[in-house]
Design brief:
Elements lengths: L6 H13 L2 H7 L4 H15 L4 E4 L2 E4 L1 H28 L6 E6 H6 L1 H11 L5 E6 L1 H10 L4 E4 L8 E15 L14 H6 L2 E4 L4 H12 L7 E5 L2 H9 L5 E4 H10 L3 E3 L7 E9 L6 H11 L3
Parallel strand pairs: 3-4, 3-5, 7-8
Antiparallel strand pairs: 1-2, 5-11, 6-9, 6-10, 6-11
Length: 299
Amino acid sequence: MTDDPDLRSLRLLVAVGEHGSLSRAAADLHVSQPSASKRLSLLERQLGLVLVDRTRRGSTLTPGGQMVADWARRVLDEFAGLVTGAQALRARHQATLRVAASMTVAEHLAPGWFGELRAAAPDLYAGLQVTNSETVAELVRSGGVDLGFVESPSAPAGLAARRVGTDRLAVVVAPGHPWARRRRPVDAARLAATPLVVREIGSGTRETLDRALTRAGAPPATVLLELGSTTAVRSSVIAGAGPAVLSVLAVAVDLREGRLVEVAVADVDLRRTLRAVWTSGRRLVGPPAELLAIALRPS
């Protein structure tokens, strides 16, 4: 690979996936179709991958293209966050509520909580860091954030904690995987012995899986591919890399629309508790207390 892909090329790839058409993607981004086609070809050369299937009926992403597009969305979201953060610094704003959350909580629960909080306090300036559960706990201990949300099997040591919900992990495969047609549940020994696409060590999802296998008398999961985000794991499974164990919150739409299939398991308890955590001995007041109260409300 010579030069790194630029943001315009990544936006184009994402737009092709959303519109199913290179011409509509080009129009959406206000560039000519020939220019868009050249940019897409350059991106494929830079990455050494075929990203788009071009036919008379339109342009669709290849499985590899879909994975790259999912990663590209994360890059674009992070860049948007960088711009927003720089604007905040330039305006000399200071966050009055600093929160860190694990990825499942941040992507599927926190947006609703923050929306309700902002409706009640429209002038509130809040910052949310999205990371794994282990890092969330470290940020709370160091005073880097006022409140954290984790999805680990047990409360982090040395922190005050409150249950805010429950979650369940599911074994998922692509529709073409042999397990998608399996009639008998997969037991703990088989699940542990099968190479899986997994999250990194330190994530609540990984810790929940390994602890559940240990409680069932099996060794920790065998790693086929270790990735740093739920989106990357999900995309790899859809592309056929192998099975994974992910939150049902993260794969609900894929299961409903048939991109993934849930595999029944036996003798493995994959339920987990979602918790708010804060500095031990500290009484929450103001915006942190208000956000916790919203999180504790029945959904």
